[in-house]
Amino acid sequence: MIIDWIYGLVGGLFIGLGGLVLLIFNGRIMGASGILGQLIDGKQDKENLERIVFLIGVIAGPLIILQFSDFSTTNVTSNTTQLVLAGLLVGAGTRIANGCTSGHGVCGISRLSLRGLLATAVYIAAGALTMVTLRTFWGLI
Amino acid sequence: MSRLLVSFISGLLFGVGLLISGMTDTAKVQGWLDILGQWDPTLAFVMGGAIIPMTAAWAITAKKAPFFDYSFSMPSNKTIDFKLLSGSVLFGMGWALAGLCPGPAIAALGFGGNGIILFFVSMVIGMILTKPIRMGSISTADG
């Protein structure tokens, strides 16, 4: 249990360093949904290549670490309906709200942005309520 | 070229952090939201760890311009509106349902198998479907 928390803290530091690097060198906020979403929107600017390279890095980083250690457990459900519905909600929700756990959460909270703080409070509350309903009350997930 | 290298390094750090922290493990994320069950506080440690370098980063931005740009691209929208709140509610519901948010879903694409890929594709479709709703809104993303 405590070892999980330590890994969490160390991993968190890496996540924050990723955000630091992107911010102080490129002047951009590290938000996963924003970077992917703007790429998908086909936003016409010169930064699309930077977005692609960032996403390649996100995929490549874990693959490098997995050569030396085993963190590969995802415990992801095999229920297709659940995955599709969850994906649609996460994709739609993060783009409507203009940010996710990295943008509103990590970057927003550290900047003491009211929008970031509030969005984070709302998605955690909605997530916990969903969890309580589906797991505690209905035993579905 | 420098900007591309920075983007890649940032992505690497982000992906490595998501993996090490356990955020690509859906059970840990669902555990964080499972407040009346086997509650798992790991996510709070991840957030705390990530906020430390970011707080330093924001302090630096107050003093100087970015190395490879003229200025910072900051979110210009400061209003608390219906989009922010309703979008966050939808996101939270989906987050609980699969235990995945956008970052970890991308980070696990290379090793997570078909379930992760299916979630990712659905997420992309969700993003595309909301484009009409988002049109005309302020375009600078919070994240």
How would you describe what is shown here?
The complex is a heterodimer of chains A (141) and B (143). Chain A is globular and about 50 Å long. Chain A has helices at residues 2-26, 32-40, 48-65, 80-96, 101-110, 114-137. Chain A has 6 helices and no strands. The two termini of chain A are 22 Å apart. Chain A is an all-alpha fold and 141 residues long. By secondary structure, chain B is mostly helical. Helices cover 64% and strands 0% of the residues of chain B. Chain B contains 7 helices and no strands. Chain B has helices at 2-21, 26-33, 42-61, 82-98, 102-107, 114-129, 131-134. In chain B, helix 2 (26-33) packs across helix 4 (82-98). The two termini of chain B are 23 Å apart. Chains A and B meet through helix 1, helix 2, helix 3, helix 4 and helix 5 of A and helix 1, helix 2, helix 3, helix 4 and helix 5 of B.
Shape of chain A: globular
Q: What level of helicity do the residues of chain A show?
A: over 70%
User: Oligomeric status of the shown chains?
Assistant: heterodimer
**What would the average pLDDT of chain B be, to the nearest integer?**
93
Largest sheet data of chain A: none
**Distinct helical segment count of chain B:** 7
Helix content of chain B: 55-70%
Distance between the termini of chain B: 23 Å
Main beta-sheet annotation of chain B: none
CA(first)-CA(last) distance of chain A: 22 Å
Shape of chain B: globular
Global mean pLDDT of chain A: 96
- In angstroms, what is the radius of gyration of chain B? 17 Å
How much of the residues of chain B is beta strand, in percent? under 5%
Give the uncertain stretches of chain B in residue-range form: none
Pattern of helices and strands of chain A: HHHHHH
Order of helices and strands of chain B: HHHHHHH
How much strand of chain A? under 5%
